[in-house]
Amino acid sequence: MTVASDPPGDSAKRPRRLFKNWMAKLASLPMILTALVVFVGGTAWTVTYSFTGSRMLPKTKWVGFDQYERLWNTDRWIISIKNLAIYGCLSMILTLVIGFSLAACLDRKIRFESAFRTIFLYPFALSFVVTGLVWQWILNPEFGLQSVVRGWGWESFTFNPLNDPNTVIYGLLIAGLWQGTGLIMCIMLAGLRGIDEDIWKAARVDGIGVVKTYVMVIIPMMRPVFITALVLIASGIIKLYDLVVAQTGGGPGLSSEVPAKYVIEYMFRAQNLGQGFAASTMMLCSVVIILIPWAYLEFGGRKRG
Amino acid sequence: MSTIMKSLLVGTALTAASVANAVELEVTHWWTSGGEAAAVAKFAEAWNATGNTWVDGAIAGSGGTARPIIISRILGGDPMAATQLNHGRQAQELIEAGLLLDLTDVAEAGGWADIVNPSSLLEACTLDGRIYCVPVNIHSSQWIWLSHGAYEKAGLDVPNDWNEFVASSGDLKAAGTLPLAMGQQGWQQNIAFGAITIAVAGLDAWKAVNIDKNADVARGAEYTAAWEAVANARELARESNVQDWNQATNMVITGQAGAQIMGDWAQGEFAVAEKVQGTDYSCLPGLGLNPVLDTGGDAFYFPVNDDPEITAAQKELAALLISPEVQVSFNLAKGSLPVRGDIDMSTANGCMQQGLEILANGGVLPSSDIAFSQDTMLQVEDLMAQFWSGDMSAADAQASYAQLIEDAD
User: Fold this and answer.
1) What is the CATH T-level fold of the domain B143-294+372-407, as seen in this structure?
2) Is the dihedral of CA A158, A163, A169, A172 positive or negative?
3) Across residues A167-173, what is the average pLDDT?
4) What's the gap in Å between the CA of A49 and the closest CA on chain B?
């Protein structure tokens, strides 16, 4: 379909703005409707029903903030939030650092670059369920890493993160990083390739070291790439669910529970929609709280300078 | 090529024609393990023998996975003809919304009120005097399974009740055996909690808390003793790193662990491993102290359908599921107890016979599926998961538990 590009001279008898590019607008109507009805409408519906005592079926039996009060008095929810905070902070930092370091290494024109790139990206092709199961086996003390190292002769070697409530979240983190860094590395690599070769030449002429050039010059130039990577990582963190289900099932005890799992289990297993909606509304709030200041910084004020 | 196409088409036409005569009923359930699948095949055989067709809609995974799928299909206007659910309060809202078929006429014609034993099973299917489900089996959770191999290795006698087991646990540990196998999942820990409570706190206290939801009793001295016993059991199971219940059962089968508290379905694992009750393992209902069993189990519900032909077939199937022959063949395959007291189960093994005897003597309790809503159940299971995996004190856990009982609806 050819979209009418608006011809420059005839702005004198220009039709109403609404009908400018009407073909394009018509074509995007289904998407606009989807966004409004499914996303905005669904969100509003969920928030509304989080103030009801809905059990298996949604009912308009208003209970005010009861669901929220119960939510914040539930140990499991508090544990979930803490776990997500630990996982989120570490995952964000480590994914960026490892992803960028790998990309920078590949960018140094090493041999077999494409082979390494494929190896690093491969885990991303697997689903989280597979990743979770694989790492459950690798970290299993009976036949995983621990027994292999012990088989080599280091008898006292102990590495059993998944069965200790204090370390299980780091076991999840290892699997999450293994899966996620490859993609970030590729995005970073694309960003690095977009940097003009002349920048490097100029840095060399000025006698700036390689590491310093990366940190002081290249990274600030890659700002859009970092923003993309940040959004990808952050959305992955918030919706963390399948990895936990596959790898630990939330255990031992409640020590690796996450908010998304709380929502699903209270909506469907406990047949308590109101409680699940309240929890998902809190998840939305946390995203909004992080997103608004960032969007303000990014798009507000000094833009278009 | 064209001949293949032709024969395929003919084949399809033939199948379609033969099905058109009988009524096809799609039945959903989550019986997918070896023994369970064999049991559900007995239903299918019996139903196909009547000239109708059983379309098997097995959903892999446990009830926790299958139930949301089943419920969303009923709610979404794509109901199956019949479905398994645990009886109790899981279907209450579906009944209230008028989505499940009223089976009262079938029940009256079949005289279910007289044959279903214990009668609490039928009560769990009843709402406002109308009957909405067919109970098909009874599962009970108050069992402890003991490994003879582990006790022989430690040079000890196999205990006869929970107190003896606790007393022997030190020697078991000294012999390098884990005293109690425990899958680290809330529902399994809740089963152990329930069984220990009945044994230690006694029946009256258990009934006051679980049936009357009396939070004062949950805060009382009997429950303090029970929680301390559970805290002690937690230490006995401290080294148990397995997750799934059958992995824990396997520890008992292989003698790595002395015992496991688990429902009667654990027996299927012993049977598959070709272990003999009395020589390789023992079972103690009610932990050997209070020989009572709860009466949870499975039931079939029939979503409302517009087609009168299907509705008639649904009622026919309902009557078939509870008929004596089907009850015997199904429950022998499943290892569960039949819902009618008037049939011959003499081919059942020792543990099942013990269970039948307890049922006949009226030592029955309602199951937690019947006593509590799913919401309360999940909260209790969360508490159990937290308690068993950490260092929460018995007193704190008791206070939280009493609060859940107080808030239970």
Assistant:
1) D-Maltodextrin-Binding Protein; domain 2 (3.40.190)
2) positive
3) 93
4) 17
Residue B97 vs residues B74, B100, B167, B175: alpha-carbon distances, Å: 11, 8, 52, 58
Say which of B379, B383, B389 has its CB closest to residue A252.
B389
Q: Which of residues 161-220 of B touch A (CB under 8 A)?
A: 184-185
Average pLDDT, chain A: 87
Closest alpha carbon to A178 in A235, A226, A247, A113? A247
What interface predicted TM-score (ipTM) does this complex get? 0.79
* Contact check, Cβ <8 Å, A75/B386: yes
Contact B386 A250 (CB under 8 A): no
Cβ contacts of residue B31 below 8 Å, gap of 6+?
A: B37, B39, B40, B58, B84, B334
pLDDT digits (tens, 9 = 90+) for A53-106: 988 888 888 999 999 999 999 999 999 999 999 999 999 999 999 999 999 999
Identify the CATH number of the domain in which residue A219 sits: 1.10.3720.10
Decide if B382 and A255 are in contact by the 8 Å CB cutoff. no
Cβ-based contacts of B374 with chain A (< 8 Å): 269-272
Each residue of B32-67: pLDDT tens digit? 776 778 889 999 999 999 989 999 999 887 777 788
What pLDDT is stored for residue B12 in this prediction?
Answer: 46
A293: in domain: no
As a whole number, mean pLDDT of residues A253-279 equals: 91
Domains of chain B by residue range:
26-139+295-362, 143-294+372-407
B26-139+295-362 fold = D-Maltodextrin-Binding Protein; domain 2 (3.40.190)
The answer to whether A217 and A203 have CB atoms below 8 angstroms apart is yes
Cβ of B375 within 8 Å of Cβ of A249? The answer is: no
User: In chain A, positions 115-144, which contact chain B (CB-CB < 8 Å)?
Assistant: 141
pLDDT band at A300 (very low <50, low <70, confident <90, very high): low
Q: Is B388 on the interface with A (CB under 8 A)?
A: yes
Do A165 and B389 count as a contact with CB atoms less than 8 A apart? yes
Q: What is the mean pLDDT of residues B339-359?
A: 82
Summarize the confidence of residues B102-128 as an average pLDDT.
88
Range of the domain at A267: 74-271
Contact check, Cβ <8 Å, A271/B379: no
Chain A partners within 8 Å of B94 (Cβ): 56
The predicted structure's pLDDT at residue A301: 57
Q: Which amino acid is at A15?
A: P
A263, A268, A273, A277: best to mutate for the B interface, most B CBs within 10 A = A268
User: How large is the average pLDDT for residues A127-139?
Assistant: 91
